[in-house]
Amino acid sequence: MSQIALPLTLRTSADPASIVIGNANRGVLDSLSDTAHWPFGTAVLTGPARSGKSLLGKWVSGEGVDVIDGADQVDETKLFHRWNAAQAAGTPLLLISDAQPWEISLPDLRSRLGAALQLEIGVPDDAMVAQLIDTMAAQRGLALADGAADYLAPRAERSFAGLEKLVATIDQLSLERKAPATMSLWRAALDATRGPEQARLL
């Protein structure tokens, strides 16, 4: 697979949802698009909940990569056979794990995957958090008032799941109060998801 230019958001053919590209995942996407440099044609992807691991798996699956999502929940002997089959076929293999760290008991599998390319989605910075908030709101059809992402980014929880909860709370409050999503609702959502003290630290 040749190196590709990555836009601000990536839309997969398998799923219409956007993957926001920023500091937490840019290096991962670069590596996923260059399977020729995967040791033994194998990569292991880990990362926080709701960080887009499965969407990335669907994307590379469409590019000819054999993907095992939730690999940490699969029988280790079966995984070892899948690794051997991928080696025999010359097919790149991506294993996605929700466990951090992923503890592997089977020695043969542990040694093979220990030699694989290790990829991890990290913690989003303010710029990526702002992009995520805008994208999540757009996916919900939630119209945020101007300046929302810039206001919320430094105050929001630094996690993908936490940001989803924040945007969902703003949406819920807007519907319940039949009010536009302006600063009073942003603050109320921060209070509800992080607590008043944490929400107003910055």
The overall pLDDT, averaged over residues, is 89
List unreliable stretches of 5+ residues: 1-8, 12-17
Class derived from helix and strand content:
alpha/beta
Overall shape: elongated
According to CATH, what is the class of the largest domain?
Alpha Beta
Number of E strands = 6
CATH architecture of the largest domain: 3-Layer(aba) Sandwich
How many individual domains?
A: 2
Main sheet: which strands, in order across? 4-5-3-6
Q: What Rg do the Cα atoms give?
A: 19 Å
Helix content: 40-55%
Order of helices and strands: EEHEHEHEHEHHHHH
Can you count the helices? 9
Describe the largest sheet: 4 strands, parallel
- Give the percentage of residues in beta strands: 5-15%
CATH superfamily of the largest domain: P-loop containing nucleotide triphosphate hydrolases
What does this structure look like?
β1 (9-11) and β2 (18-20) form a beta hairpin. This protein is elongated. The chain is α/β, with parallel strands linked by helices and 202 residues long. The strands form two sheets. It has a four-stranded parallel β-sheet with strand order 4-5-3-6, covered by helices on one side. The protein has a two-stranded antiparallel sheet with strand order 1-2. The chain has helices at residues 26-32, 53-61, 76-89, 107-114, 126-140, 148-152, 160-177, 183-194, 196-199, and strands spanning 9-11, 18-20, 42-46, 66-68, 93-97, 117-120. α5 (126-140) crosses α7 and α7 packs across α8 (183-194). The chain folds into two domains: 9-120, Rossmann fold; 126-199, Helicase, Ruva Protein, domain 3. Mean pLDDT is 89; it is low at 1-8 and 12-17. It is built from nine helices and six strands, in the order ββαβαβαβαβααααα. The N and C termini lie far apart (44 Å). It is 46% helix and 11% strand.
